[in-house]
Amino acid sequence: MREWWFERHTDGKNSYLGDSAGKAVWKFLGLEDYIKPETVILNVGVGTGRCTRDLKDKGVKELHVLDITDAAIEKVKDIAIGYTTPQDLSDSKFDLIISHLVAQHINDEELLFHLGHYLRSLKDAGFAALQFRDTLEDKGGQSFITQRSGRVCRSQLDMRNLVDKVGGKVLKWLKTREITVVDGALPVLWHGVYIIK
Ligand SMILES: C[S@@+](CC[C@H](N)C(=O)[O-])C[C@H]1O[C@@H](n2cnc3c(N)ncnc32)[C@H](O)[C@@H]1O
Question: d(Cα 71, Cα 113) in Å, to the nearest integer?
Answer without folding.
Answer: 22
